Every structure is written in C-alpha cells, then in structure tokens.
Amino acid sequence: MNRLEQKIISDGIVREGNVLKVDSFLNHQIDIDMLNWIGEEFKRRFSDVKVDKILTIEASGIALASVAALHFNVPVLFAKKTQSVNVDGEKFCSQVASFTHKCINNVFVSKNYLKAGEKVLIIDDFLAMGSALEGLTDLVRQAGAEVAGIGIAIEKGFQEGGRKIREKGYRLESLAIIDEMDGTTGTIKFRQ
Amino acid sequence: MNRLEQKIISDGIVREGNVLKVDSFLNHQIDIDMLNWIGEEFKRRFSDVKVDKILTIEASGIALASVAALHFNVPVLFAKKTQSVNVDGEKFCSQVASFTHKCINNVFVSKNYLKAGEKVLIIDDFLAMGSALEGLTDLVRQAGAEVAGIGIAIEKGFQEGGRKIREKGYRLESLAIIDEMDGTTGTIKFRQ
Fold this sequence. Notes:
- Two copies of one chain form a homodimer.
- Chain A is of the alpha/beta class.
- In chain A, 28% of the residues lie in helices and 36% in strands.
- Chain A is built from five helices and eleven strands.
- Chain A has helices spanning 3-11, 32-45, 62-72, 131-143, 161-167, and strands at residues 13-15, 19-21, 29-30, 53-57, 76-82, 91-98, 103-110, 119-127, 146-156, 172-181, 188-190.
- In chain A, the strands form two sheets. In chain A, strands 6-7-5-4-8-9-10-11 form an eight-stranded mixed sheet, sandwiched between helices. In chain A, strands 1-2 form a two-stranded antiparallel sheet.
- In chain A, β9 (146-156), α5 and β10 form a beta-alpha-beta unit.
- In chain A, α2 (32-45) crosses α3.
- Chain A is globular and about 50 Å long.
- The mean pLDDT of chain A is 94.
- The interface between A and B is medium-sized, with 30 and 30 residues.
- β3 of chain A pairs antiparallel with β5 (76-82) of chain B, so a sheet runs across the interface.
C-alpha cells in the first residue's frame, strides 16, 4: 500500500451511504506532510506532462492543489461555487451536482485566468460520481484550454466517475482507488 | 516595500466601495511563489512562538494557511461555513459577517480537531472589519485553546478590524497594511 492508502486505513472512517470520512487529515483538518507527499506523487506521475496551470474547486481541493503547485511551480486557479446564476460576460460557468450536500452548484472561473491553449492539470481530493470533474473539464473546454491530466487523491472506484472520465480519454491518476467499502465492518479494499 | 506590497501595487486593482481586487494572485488565481514567500515571512515573524496548529477559514484562507503550514510543520484546520444552524454536540460554532457578500455565515470546526491547550496560529488572507477573526478567535476560546498569534496577508488599515484585534491584546502580524486606497485614481498607500 502507498502512503495515502495506509493513512486511509489507519485514520479513515467508513460511514453508511458510501461515505468515507477523512476529515482528520484531508478535508477539514489537514496533515500537511501527507499533502506534501501527495503533491510529490502527482509531480512524479505527471513528470512527462507539460502543465501551465493547476485547476481545482473550492473548498477541499484548494489545500491539495496549492501544495501540489509548489512541486509543479505553476499558478493555481480554484473554481468558485455560487447558488446565484449571475451570468456575466466575465466568467466561464458550469454546473456541479454535490454528492455530499445533495444539491446543484453553479461553478465559475474568471475568463481572465483560463486562457486558450493553456495546459491544465485538474486536481481534486475525491472522485465519486464525477460531477465536479465534469464541471471543471467543461470550464477548460469553454476556455479553449486543454486538460493535460487529472490528479485525484481518493477515487471511489465502485462509483461511476472514474469509468466515465477514463472513457472520455482523459489521463486520470488516482492515488488511492477504493473498490469496496463496508459501513458495517469498516473494511476498505483498494484496487491494485 | 516588501514583496507582497510590490505585488499589490503591480497587480492589485482598487475598486469603489473600499474593495481591493487581488484575485489574479491571492484569492482566485494563486501565485504559488508569492504564497510561499508569505508563508516564509509568517514563519520568520512568529519564529519565537510555539505553534501547534494553524487555523483558517474557507475558502480563500486555505491556500495561504496550507503553504504556511509547510514552513511551520503543523496541521491546518479550516473552519467551514454553513447557512444552516445545525448545532450538534460535535462542533464549535460561531458567526461571521461577510464584508464581501453582505451576509452572515455560521462557521464551525469539529470538536475533534481543536483541543484545550493547543497553541493556534490563525492565518487569513484579508483583514477588514475583523468579523472573520472574531469568529475564529471565538472558536479557539470555546475549545479552551490559545491564540498564539494572528497572521494576515493584507490588512485594510482604514477599517476597524486591525484596531479591534490589537486592542484585545492579540499578536497581529499583517504583511501589508493599507492605510489609504482610492477607487478613482487607483492609488494605494501602505503603513510604514
């Protein structure tokens, strides 16, 4: 098991409803050493890829993307969420359904910061149904930029997001892919 | 001028209504090298202080706090915002008025991650009226932890937040303090 998988086993908590609670080290309290390892690992896996910018989505992708950006030495852009539909000419907008909060958010980035031709590495902490990635790849497409790759810390491999993204031909690197998770026993099985 | 002040002069945009737009490098698109300098500078200024944890608030404090945490080698905890008032026994909750969005948010952290006696360095990107810091210091107080210091990237010195915080005896280090800002001419004057 890699370092993230070990951390999930030791500190992750499986809840009913396919929820994996990792808020002690990834998305509420943050283990900065763990995040630094994740950033190094993304850099290692995408070392052959030209990356101009890292794109993520608020809020739990931001820490991960920022620490990773230190290893890539590129700017980070984080998509913002809003309930309002204030479409002005200055933003690229898309929609994201939230698995956790059971609602739909509008997400946007300023057109000033996503340019045609830019090679964008998308980074996020979780991949489940793939809705956040659909929104982020849509923003990149609207800008005429290119998705150089997608880096995910934890993929719930038993949900359809990973399959949908790979079928579209994106280069997806997930550092821990969970193929089975049991809310009763608390057991977790990773994909090899 | 220090490096952040120079960046504000070159890339910041002053808008009417006392708004300073720094979204090209601090709180939408992020200049990771700039953030790393900020983190190093916070570490330098607080080098004599014992810090067990860095506390910030979503979303625009997260990148800054995470990069700073690499220099302090401590965990980061970010307070989450919610419109709902779901007070359960598991969270410390407080209220924060948003200057930008003209609304009141409930903010919370899990009781699991803020412990009595912990020495907490609060970090955020902006200080204006001081409402976010009131909320964050209140969470620390509820936990029985201690505010070891407060690190702010940009303080709007002509608004009351800085004065209120200093009057309460907190050790506040703001890397750029703006004493005057003109939305018509675009000029910015820093406190020496």
